[in-house]
Structures are given as C-alpha cells and as structure tokens.
C-alpha cells in the first residue's frame, strides 16, 4: 500500500514526525490568538476600548458677602483655638471630618491634632484672607496671612486653608497648611530706663572744655601673681624632687647589693 511504502523509508518517517510536531504546536497557538483577539470578548486584552471620564470639576460659585461672613467667623475661631493652641477642645467642632479623621475628641483636646501651631497676634483682622484661591458652592480655598505675637521669635506666615460646608449648613476647616514665612522674626524690644541720669559737675566741666575724661587706673588683679609664683615653685621643687628620687633609688640598690653579698 502507498502508506506502507511511505512509512518504510526512515527519511520519510523523520519528515512526517517533524511535520506532525510543527502542526501540534502551531494549531493551538493559532486558536488561542483567534480566541483572545475577537472583539466579542469583553475581557480580552485587545477587546474594545472603554472610555473613562474624569470626575467633573465642581462649578464655581460666587463668594458672596453672606458666605464671607460665615467663613470669617469660623476661621477666626479656628485660628484663636487650634492654631494658637488655646482652648483647643473648642476647635473640635470647627474642624471638618476630613481634618479630624483617625482622632478622638480626647486626643484632639490634648493637642494631638494635624494643625501646625503658630503664635498669631491677637488682632481684629485674624480670620481674614489675602486671596481667594477657589470658591465652589460648598468649598472655598483661601490664602491667609498671619502676624506673630511680639517677642515670639517667628516671622509672619502665609497659610493655605480650605473650608467646606456640611449638610447642617455650617462651615468647617478641612485643611490648614503653612506655605511661606515672611520677613525677620518678631523680637521683643529692650526696655530702656525711664529716669534720665543727671551728669555730675565734673563731667559737665570736662564736656564743656572738650577734653576727654581720664580713665581711672586699673588695679592689677591678684590672680596674675599666681603665675610667676607657680613657675618659681616648679624651678625649685622640680630639681629637689629629682634629687630625692635618685637618692632613694641609690640607697635601695645599695641595700639589695649588701643582702646579696
């Protein structure tokens, strides 16, 4: 038969085995490629592209006078409590849930709050802002400028603040972060004596004549006598100590020599 003749040749048998191996490898690969490249498979890597839309940016809302008054009151009280670290527990109700996340009211009252402290000066302008970064219906971002207390040793500061309006209609601080310090630190002024000194008659005469007053002679301190006395003591005591040491060593050597003999 023709099939027996083909298989009877060793060369043909090797060729058939090689062709069968190629088919056995190629056919599964072709099937896999055809299966995973079909557009009907939604889970395939090469399936149809899914367009994802970014969350829509909230619409801008005017920063009305009413909103400004409400924000100013909350911001003023927050700075006077949480930022200055005075009556900190009262600032718990002025902070938004995002700022209080992971903290209890007791921890907040003990000063463990995510707000950088700052010794703001007690002025009527505390709670105001220099710039409005953004204003939405329930969110407002501000740039706040603070002056330090005199003698605090810190400079004026600018901080970024965000306030959000809760479902109860109240504004709360959701973000507070200093971003820049301005100018030299506030240093306390040196108090000068209020009572003027009355110059003596002698000083008045010398000042009128234009001649400088002679300085009083300085008395030498007794400490300076310690240095020469110490040097002289070393000059005398050092040879004496060396001589005593040599005499004792020679006497000990003579004593040992006498014992050995």
If you had to describe this structure to a student in words, what would you say it looks like?
The structure is a single chain. With 261 residues, the protein is of the alpha+beta class. Among the domains are: 2-36; 65-182, NTF2-like, domain 1 (Nuclear Transport Factor 2, Chain: A, Roll). Helices cover 39% and strands 13% of the residues. It has 6 helices and 4 strands; from the N terminus they run ααααββββαα. It has a 4-stranded antiparallel sheet. Strand 1 (131-135) and strand 2 form a beta hairpin.
List the helices and strands and how they pair.
Blueprint: H1 2-8, H2 10-36, H3 65-83, H4 105-109, E1 131-135, E2 139-146, E3 156-165, E4 171-182, H5 201-209, H6 226-260
Antiparallel strand pairs: 1-2, 2-3, 3-4
Class based on secondary structure composition and strand pairing = alpha+beta
pLDDT averaged residue by residue: 76
Cα-based radius of gyration, to the nearest Å: 47 Å
* CATH topology type of the domain at 65-182: Nuclear Transport Factor 2, Chain: A
Just give the CATH class of the domain at 65-182. Answer: Alpha Beta
CATH superfamily of the domain at 65-182: NTF2-like, domain 1
Biggest β-sheet, characterized?
Answer: 4 strands, antiparallel
Low-confidence stretches: 189-216
Q: Please list the strands of the largest sheet in the order they lie side by side.
A: 1-2-3-4
CATH architecture of the domain at 65-182: Roll
Number of helices: 6
SSE order, one letter for each helix or strand: HHHHEEEEHH
Instruction: Label the overall shape.
Output: flat
Cα separation of the termini: 132 Å
Secondary structure tally: strands:
4
Helix content estimate: 25-40%
Give the amount of beta strand, in percent. Answer: 5-15%
